[in-house]
Specification:
This protein is of the alpha+beta class and 309 residues long. The chain contains 14 helices and eight strands. Bound molecules: glutamine.
């Protein structure tokens, strides 16, 4: 039996002198205030253990990691039809890039870049008022994490609403191509609130368990998606979860993962565990610098990889 706690403690000790590396996301004023010298790591295993180290109980803004949960909801709503609205290919460009959208007639490359996630918010919004769609997501994430303490940080949502000019541009552009059914303000209301979900590493690791365990949360017995759908969401996380850093993350870590500009990364070791790493300093492509280093160390020390042992 591997001593996972000792592995986490070792990674934490090694990274302590490096805390503060990277640059916090300052284009969202509320995120610019976060202390960069924080680091948390948590693992929830499919056999029910939870291990943690560092600031694993400090809530942070999960930002784009929410795109995995929204994709899961949207697939539950409209099934494979979703893929008429959004593609499944890596973009090779920044998370908030607009260039491909015109060439590809308003159909975003994948569900994890901003444009794709905004189209997915539109799908989840259908049949609801924005407030209800946000409520549906919050209930879903609380159910996944089995924790009603998960909240939405209204200050972060407001901060992004006031400064999200690029996201407004992306949404308006897609609306002009007929790829949004609802008013841009409503769709972005949902999108900004999903990004403002506030969770800690333990909650996030638990929320990802369904992806590690064939679509069901083994801790609660909750069935979330079919095994096939869980595999497919993992495939998208591996190929698109880190934007134009996805190849590098697969090369170094070798696990499906999804990053957010709050500095969080949720990663999945299929059949074994769900992992959440958090450190607010970002690298050049907007992924957590030390979060990725911690996951690389973890993968190396446990031998976890989707590419073989
Ligand atoms: N809310 C952020 C944005 O739309 C999400 C980006 C991210 O986490 N990569 O810019």
């Amino acid at each position: 039996m591997m001593d996972l706690q000792a592995i986490l403690d070792g990674i934490h000790a090694e990274l302590l002198p490096r805390l503060g590396e990277g640059k916090v996301a300052d284009y969202i004023p509320e995120l610019a205030k976060v202390d960069p010298r924080q680091f948390g790591l948590a693992i929830a295993t499919v056999d029910g253990q939870v291990h943690r180290v560092g600031d694993a109980e400090a809530p942070f803004s999960i930002q784009s990691i929410s795109k995995v949960f929204m994709l899961t909801l949207a697939l539950g709503k409209v099934g494979e039809q979703l893929w008429t609205r959004v593609g499944r290919e890596p973009s090779g460009s920044a998370f908030n890039s607009i260039v491909q959208l015109e060439h590809e007639s308003g159909i975003p490359r994948n569900p994890f870049i901003n444009a794709g996630a905004i189209a997915i918010s539109d799908v989840v919004l259908s049949g609801h008022a924005p407030r209800e769609a946000i409520g549906e997501l919050l209930r879903f994430v609380r159910y996944l994490a089995d924790d009603d303490a998960v909240t939405i940080d209204e200050k972060v949502a407001r901060s992004e609403t006031q400064t999200g000019f690029r996201n407004f541009a992306l949404a308006n552009f897609m609306r002009s191509y007929g790829n949004l059914d609802h008013p841009v303000e409503h769709v972005l209301g949902v999108y900004f609130h999903q990004c403002a979900l506030s969770m800690n590493c333990i909650q996030l690791a638990k929320a990802g368990l369904y992806l590690a365990a064939r679509g069901s949360n083994p801790a609660t017995g909750h069935s979330v998606v079919s095994p096939k759908r869980a595999r497919r969401i993992n495939a998208l996380m591996l190929t698109c979860g880190h934007y134009d850093g996805s190849g590098d993350f697969a090369y170094h870590v070798g696990l499906p993962g999804k990053s957010g500009v709050g500095g969080g990364i949720m990663a999945v070791a299929p059949g074994i565990a769900s992992i959440a790493a958090w450190s607010p300093g970002l690298n050049k492509v907007g992924n957590s610098q030390l979060g990725a280093v911690a996951l690389e160390m973890l993968a190396a020390r446990t031998g976890w990889s989707v590419f073989g042992d």
